[in-house]
Amino acid sequence: KGELRIQSLTFDDAGMYQCIAENTHGIIYANAELKIVASPPTFELNPMKKKILAAKGGRVIIECKPKAAPKPKFSWSKGTELLVNGSRIHIWDDGSLEIINVTKLDEGRYTCFAENNRGKANSTGVLEMTEATRITLAPLNVDVTVGENATMQCIASHDPTLDLTFIWSLNGFVIDFEKEHEHYERNVMV
């Protein structure tokens, strides 16, 4: 296929490479530059969120995305406790930490550690739990005669420290109340 593979790259492999394709009708050239990147992990461009919110009983993913080459190995701690994969906690290959069935005991300071053969770095954020948002009154099926108006209700409970937004959709497509104001009307009750 005219493919060039280089195993176990070193800095000496960096440079301009040229592919030459030739047949009885002529010859063509293509050039490409190979840059070798090697750097210790750094969170300068993408630090961990300082505050992470998780819904009670829900699932949260805390991202850990340092810049590093080669790809670093990841570990996590909560406070001074080193975290390991278990039934509720999982450390993904990309460094993200997943916690399922979040409880009040999961609140605290989480630190992601990244290490490769060039160095190491870490970043910390605080996980806070919020009350889960729940639909307390769901819309009901409605039979309406053509030409009449229909009203559907949706009421939800939510954590008082967070804002709540209702999004309505029809057959999977979100309704734009500004564009379709002649047909749909949103009434927000406090």
TrEMBL record:
Stretches assigned to the Ig-like domain: 41-128
Predominant cellular place of this UniProt entry's protein: membrane
Protein species of origin: Tricholaema leucomelas (pied barbet)
Entry keyword annotation includes tRNA processing: no
Superkingdom of the source species: Eukaryota
PANTHER family documented for this protein: BASIGIN RELATED, ZWEI IG DOMAIN PROTEIN ZIG-3
Lineage: Eukaryota, Metazoa, Chordata, Craniata, Vertebrata
UniProt GO BP: axon guidance; dendrite self-avoidance; homophilic cell adhesion via plasma membrane adhesion molecules
Protein name per UniProt: CNTN1 protein
Pfam name, any one: I-set
